[in-house]
């Protein structure tokens, strides 16, 4: 990116909108992870929208639980979940408080602190792979459940989001979400920057086979 990155923090109003407006608007924004070793900055290149009680693919589709309570607001907080007994995934809560929705951060380009990310993502073959996929992104940024519910807009916490360098509208693409099955499988709620090498490959949902 040759364009200077805008370091103005995003506001609560940015996140207090429909998830389908927030998700594509997060592309090109800068996510800052402050660690004891130093900052890591990532330009978001791929996200997915999850729309709560109208979305069978959402953790909040069947209502509030202890696990998903952060998704019900207020907007501008992190929702971190643990999946497959191995990986964490980072989401940003949006929409009006009480109406659960969130954006899964799927991929990005590490622009600052690549050495810190490499120390956690030592299996990455190159820097393009450091945060290429939601579990890789969370690992590279040292995100776990301890960061669940963090306010990303207070300016003092471990996570924050800056205006960054959004792509031209013509470079934004959308399509089905990765790995989502059932009634939510065909929603075109995955958004990415066209041609960016850090975007993860699309994988359709594969139903699990029951042991016989």
Number of strands: 9
Rg result: 16 Å
Biggest sheet, in brief?
Answer: 9 strands, antiparallel
Choose one word for the global shape.
globular
Low confidence ranges: none
Helical run tally: 4
- Helix/strand order: EHHEEEEEHHEEE
Query: How much helicity do the residues have?
Result: 10-25%
What would you say this structure looks like, in words?
12% of the residues lie in helices and 29% in strands. It contains 4 helices and 9 strands, in the order βααβββββααβββ. It has helices at residues 12-15, 19-25, 114-120, 134-140; strands at residues 6-9, 30-35, 38-50, 78-83, 87-93, 102-112, 159-164, 172-175, 190-193. The longest helix is centred in the first third of the chain and has 7 residues, at 19-25.
Key phrases:
single chain, nine-stranded antiparallel beta sheet, 212 residues
């Amino acid at each position: 990116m040759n364009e200077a990155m805008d370091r103005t923090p995003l506001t609560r109003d940015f996140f207090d909108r429909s998830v389908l407006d927030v998700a594509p608007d997060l592309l090109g924004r800068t996510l800052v992870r402050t660690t004891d070793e130093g900052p890591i900055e990532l330009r978001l290149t791929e996200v997915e929208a999850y729309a709560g009680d109208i979305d069978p693919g959402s953790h909040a589709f069947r209502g509030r639980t202890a696990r998903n309570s952060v998704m019900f607001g207020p907007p501008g907080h992190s929702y971190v979940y643990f999946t497959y007994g191995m990986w964490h995934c980072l989401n940003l809560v949006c929409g009006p408080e009480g109406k659960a929705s969130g954006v899964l951060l799927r991929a990005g380009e590490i622009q600052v602190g690549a050495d810190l990310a490499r120390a956690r993502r030592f299996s990455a073959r190159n820097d393009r792979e450091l945060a290429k996929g939601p579990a890789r992104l969370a690992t590279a940024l040292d995100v776990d459940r301890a960061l669940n519910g963090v306010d990303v807009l207070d300016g003092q916490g471990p996570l924050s989001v800056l205006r960054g360098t959004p792509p031209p509208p013509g470079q934004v693409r959308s399509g089905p979400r990765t790995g989502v099955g059932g009634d939510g499988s065909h929603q075109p709620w995955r958004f990415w920057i066209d041609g960016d090498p850090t975007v993860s490959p699309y994988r359709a949902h594969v139903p699990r086979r029951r042991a016989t």
